[in-house]
Amino acid sequence: MRIAMWSGPRNLSTTMMRSFGARADTAAIDEPFYAAYLRLTGLRHPMTDEIFSAHEADPQKVIDHLTGPVPGGKTVFYQKHMVHHMVGGIPMDWLGRIEQHVLLIRHPARVVASYARKMEALSPEAMGFPQQEALWQQLSEVLGAAPVIVDADNILQDPEGVLRRLCAAIGLDWDSAMLGWPAGPRAEDGAWAPHWYDAVWRSTGFGPPPGPLPELSGEAARIAEGALATYERLLAAHV
Predict the structure, then answer these.
(1) What secondary structure does DSSP assign to 79-107, as a single string?
(2) Quick check: 104 and 12 in contact, CB under 8 A?
(3) Region 77-100: what's the mean pLDDT?
């Protein structure tokens, strides 16, 4: 089984990669289109040179890997994807060759607040808000049914309960190993991990339940408010 988990940045996505990667039957890959995205857009992100040195930038080669044999002789291939990486020049005709697609969403106020701590430039597209709903519609057409949606805040409220429902929804046996892992980096972590993954590297499981929504102002507040309707439409279909 190949599982494509689609989210924007700061959506609990790396913690979810840790959770699935803790399963003995699962191989994980971290944002496989990141290098291709940077090459095609010409953007310079933190550690761009390291990303190009360590990761494949040819989209077709990435696709061949994602749709080929599961690495390491495992039976499950967990693929952590960022929706905003799927820019023009990256084919999307491979989606139907992935057995399970899941959208991981989070309240936009939390996403924006977390993203702003790492990056100065803010935009809805950089955080994947419009792309996530567009992908939901595209996957619904390709698959003939809406993909599974899971909410990050709900996971933090009840990790075992939500993960059990998620596994059932995608036809994967439950494994309690998904609830904990040793601290530190992992082989599947992308070259960008030293910039982004400080909290995940310290973690040994899911964090505490989320507190009140962060207070935002200015451009950050405008972006979060603009994305709220999209988030609520997707939230209505979560597991």
Answers:
(1) EEEEGGG--TTS--TTGGGSSEEEEEE--
(2) yes
(3) 97
Q: For 159-180, what is the mean pLDDT?
A: 98
Scanning the structure block, which residue is given the tokens 């070259």?
Answer: 191
Bridge partners of 142? none
Q: Residue 83: exposed, middle, or buried by beta-carbon count in 10 A (0-12, 13-18, 19+)?
A: buried
Do residues 173 and 146 make contact, with C-beta atoms less than 8 angstroms apart?
no
Question: Which domain covers residue 183, as residue numbers?
Answer: 2-235
Bridge partners of residue 28, in order along the sequence:
78
The total domain count for the chain is 1
**Is 39:57 a contact under the CB 8 Å cutoff?**
yes
Contact 234, 149 (CB under 8 A): yes
Give the number of other CB atoms < 10 A from CB of residue 51: 20
Query: CA distances (Å), 1 to each of 53, 75, 161, in order?
Result: 29, 6, 22
Count of all residues that appear for the chain in the document: 239
Helix or strand run (H / E) with residue 26: strand 26-30
Q: In this structure, what CATH number is given to the domain that contains residue 24?
A: 3.40.50.300
Q: What is the tens place of the pLDDT at every residue in 219-231? A: 999 999 999 999 9
What is the rounded distance in angstroms from the CA atom of residue 14 to the CA atom of residue 89? 25
